[in-house]
Structure formats: structure tokens, C-alpha cells
Amino acid sequence: MTATGLPFVFEATGVFAPTWRMTTEGLVTHGQIFEGRDSNDAFAMILSTFALTLVVGLYTLSLTRARRSAQRVTIVQAWHLRQLLPNEPPRD
Length: 92
Known about the structure:
- The protein is mainly alpha-helical.
- It has helices spanning 2-13, 39-84; strands spanning 20-23, 26-29.
């Protein structure tokens, strides 16, 4: 939360130069890290955004598969443990 909110606080207090503003046309953003000069630069930015989205999606998919596998193993282990226990409690 801090990593996301702190830059906005720094912009509001004047520590960083503003990188966005609201206009009648909508949200306008600009930065100083990357300066695009032609359509190839825009294409590279779009392609890298899609690549990042793909990598994050594949990572999420691998986490989901690992979680499901761990749950499956836990369910099987619990079933095996129940088979080892008697059905009725011992009588005195």
C-alpha cells in the first residue's frame, strides 16, 4: 500500500514533479523516464505492456496450479489418516 500511495503523496507535497492531471479530455499522464519519438516507441511500449501482462498471468496460473496440487495432496493424506483410525471410540 505504501509503495503505491507514497508517490501520490510526494507529488501532492511537491517532492516530485506532477506526472498526471485531470482535464476536460480525461486523465493526462506524462513521465520523464521514457521519451517516445515515433510510432516504433509506442509499439514497443504496447508490446512490453502485453508481455508484462502475459508474464503476470502465467505466474498466477502456476501459483493456482501449485495451490490446487497441494490441496489435493492434503485431501488424500487426510483420507489415508482416517482409514487408520477406528470407526468407533473405544468402550470402557
